[in-house]
Amino acid sequence: MNNQQSFLEIRSLLDTVQHNSELFVQALHGQDLPYLSYSQITTVEFCQQRYYLQYILDQQPEPLPDYFTKGKLLHQLIAHGYQAHMDSVELSLEDLQEQLTASNLACDRAHLANALQVYQQHRWQVQRVLAVEHPFVISLADDLPPLVGVIDLILQDGDTIILVDHKTGRNFYPYDELQVAIYAHYIQSIFPDYDCQLYYDHYRWVNNLRRIRKPAFQRTLVEVQPAHDALYRQRMYAAEQVIHNLRAGSAPTHSGACFRCPFKGNCEYSYR
Asked: What is the CATH number of domain 3-260?
């Protein structure tokens, strides 16, 4: 199947699942379609062995890190808050805390409870919430597989479309322009007459909001540099070539950065 056919098939999948992000990810996972995602690109850049374990062998980290569960649950709770706003219903902090209590996921609840307070203090107050957990597919070049992704939050404020990506972690970390470039290409294809901005809303895990030395929240405006467009595309093409070779049976190389890898418990190289 060529890249254009794959794009049309994935776009059809999106319509079939009515742009539900969870159903889209599940449906896409069950199809043998060539595509790229920002996560795939950064994973194979980090370590081919990790890509092999995660995307080809379809393994989960063992044991599952606490921050995986916390990050997923916080994304879900924040999505519920903004989705309720779209539906003209306002969820209070207490409502979200009740949802947190009702969840049966095993993780650090104190970190999540604090993050919900931070979310309530810093949630976006704009003209409209356009979409929450919005899946998309875009074709950037005929010789490049279609790119897929899920945008956490799409807002409208006057003549500006605002994209928000939620990040979680023990510390704040630098942004990656490539993610912004991919998202911006997609948004500009459907909102050509609007300005586009992307922000990282980064929630830092803290034990006690009253006793912190640096902020628990950071909102960063991420700028796309047109002069870097060739570099963005170079990264996509390089990742696609490596992924193609791995799926064709090439042996993955190993980067050695095991201390930063959640798959080190699965990996034969991590303790050498």
From this structure: 3.90.320
Per-residue tokens: 70: 């916390």
- The residue among 124, 107, 131, 182 whose CA lies nearest residue 24 is 131
Nearest to 133 by CA among 194, 67, 76, 179: 76
SS3 state of residue 32 = coil
- Each residue of 69-86: pLDDT tens digit? 899 999 999 999 999 999
Question: 0.85 exceeded by the pTM?
Answer: yes
Q: What is the largest CA-CA distance in the chain?
A: 56
Question: Measuring CA to CA, how many Å separate 252 from each of 74, 163, 243, 247?
Answer: 33, 34, 10, 10
Please name the helix (run of DSSP H) or strand (run of DSSP E) that holds residue 6, with its range, or none: helix 3-16
Instruction: Name, in order, each residue with C-beta under 8 angstroms of 239's C-beta and a sequence gap of 6 or more.
Output: 36, 40, 41, 44, 45
- Domain positions in the chain are 3-260
